[in-house]
Structure formats: C-alpha cells, structure tokens
Hints:
By secondary structure, the protein is of the alpha+beta class. The protein contains four helices and three strands. A three-stranded mixed β-sheet has the order 1-2-3. The chain starts with a helix and ends in a 15-residue tail after the last helix.
Amino acid sequence: MTIQESITKKLNDAFSPEHLEVVNESFMHNVPEGSESHFKVVIVCDDFKGKMLIARHRLVNKVLEDELKKERSDGGIHALSLHTMTMGEWFEKGKAPDSPECLGGGKA
C-alpha cells in the first residue's frame, strides 16, 4: 500500500468524510521521482463543526501520527497541507486553494 493510499484509508476510517482528496504533490518539489513526501489533504466533514482550525488539524495529525513521526527516507511525510472544512464551508468556498510553487530545495 502506498503512503497516499494509507493516508486515504486512515482518514476515511476515522472521519467518514463527505469529501476527501489526498494529493501527492511531491513532484512539485526537489525530491526523487516517485517520492511520497509532500501531500495536500482536503477533508470535508461535519465532525469539524464548532472546532477552531488548529483543533481540526490536531485531529487529522493524530490520525496520521505514525506517518508524521517517521523520517522522510523511511516512508514518512515531510510536508502536509491540510484543508479541513465542514459541509457548509465546502459549499461556500467551492474548493481548496491551489498549492504554491516550491521555491526551496535547489529549485529556486
């Protein structure tokens, strides 16, 4: 199972979200081809109702605790962009923002 598949399964199991996107954005960074180290997660779930953004992120980080603890070379996540929304917020915004271009790691 890939890291992307593992993240997707864990978040689906923990939250049963209305909408979930787990995007491997490693190709946008200075990493070897085929890397799984940079991810964007868009998760829409009413479990987030009434919770501040930091609390939402902590909930997701707790579910992905093992992946976040590992070293990147050992299958861990180097960067995780989280977009946590309720259904109402999702309908209001329509989508998560695009990720910025990578300027670090020798690409600048």
